[in-house]
Amino acid sequence: MKRREFIALLGGATGWPLATRAQQTAMPLIGFLSSGSPENRASLLTAFRQGLNEEGYIEGRNVRIEYRWAESHSDRLPGLAAELVRLGVTVLVPTSNIQTALAAKAATSNIPIVFETGGGDPVRLGLVASFNRPGGNVTGFTGMSVELSAKGIELLRVLVPQAAIIGVLMNRSESDAAFEVYLRDLQLAAQAVGQRVEIVNASSEREIETAFTTFAQKRADALLVGADSLFWNQRAQLVDLAARSAIPTSYFSEEFVRAGGLMSYAANRPDMYRRTGVYTGRVLKGAKPGELPVQQPTKFDLIINLKTAKALGLSVPPSLLARADEVIE
Question: For residue range 100-153, what is the model confidence (pLDDT) as tens digits?
Fold first, then answer.
């Protein structure tokens, strides 16, 4: 081999590892998609970053995150998901609800997806093949909102045993498929305990106001607010309307109770977001989403506001107080 050819070959051999090393050390990019607003997700984002940290990833140091917020406008989700895909994210993390996850799945079949949803059956809605072996490029965490709503009805029956009718507030715009599954399962849960429920849909701030008028006309004795990003963002309005209507209400998040609501029974969402961060970190390290089981909550919190109960003229049974994870006085 001629000396000049040898030097050229040596230069190529030394240059290739450098290029490879540069690619390997390029900072991965997470695409974080939410149906909500950043100001309402601060504590959850902290929990998500904590999960990433547990896997060795620190935002700004060895991982970047691009955030996209639908601000409770579900029609924006497909476009936002597509935008993150065009950015070439390493992993896509849709959060908040099942529709966000479905929008992410529709946007890509190649980029790994780690979802977090407040509820909805990901198998029945076509998001994954099964809980244990999701398959494809998708895995994540689901909040079992139907089961939680059934538990919410049970707790309302303990707190308001004379309730002949329990109203249920829902938002059909989140996803027609998710709504139908939720509606059917909720009605079955109510029938199992002999409870009559009246379901009213609200997809805007104005419709929430109208819904409370409807519940009054139907003489609902108590109210269950279904998990929904619109209701999360309008929690001050909902708590105020429940107080003005003097209707005992159970919510899907502790933030409602801290704002003056009566009661909440819900999965511990910060823990869900932390675990989502852990899964995301594992995927960044090379784990295949389709081989990571879809997981459900392991922590649930019952929180009761005794001040609100007193204002409603309710006496909280000792048995219910004993079950509470926190009592606000």
Answer: 999 999 999 999 999 998 766 788 778 999 999 999 999 999 876 666 778 889
- The whole-angstrom distance between residue 285's C-alpha and the CA centroid of its chain comes to 24
Q: Please indicate, yes or no, whether residues 125 and 258 belong to a single structural domain of this protein.
A: no
Tokens (6 digits) for 4: 């000049």
97 with 150, same domain? no
Distance from C-alpha of 264 to C-alpha of 310, rounded to nearest angstrom = 16
Per residue in 162-203, pLDDT (tens digit) is 999 999 999 876 556 666 767 777 888 888 889 999 999 998
Domain check: are 199 and 163 in the same one?
Answer: yes
Give the type of residue at 215. Answer: F
What is the extent of the structural domain holding 42? 6-143+268-299
5-57: pLDDT as tens digits: 444 444 444 443 433 333 445 899 999 999 888 987 888 999 999 999 999 99
Judge contact between 203 and 75, C-beta under 8 A.
no
Evaluate whether residue 305 is within a structural domain.
yes
- Here the CATH number for the domain that contains residue 261 is 3.40.50.2300
**pLDDT, position 228:** 78
Supply the pTM of this predicted model: 0.73
Percent helix, strand, coil in the chain, to 5, is 50, 20, 30
Number of structural domains found in the chain:
2
Q: Identify residue 139 by its one-letter amino acid code.
A: T
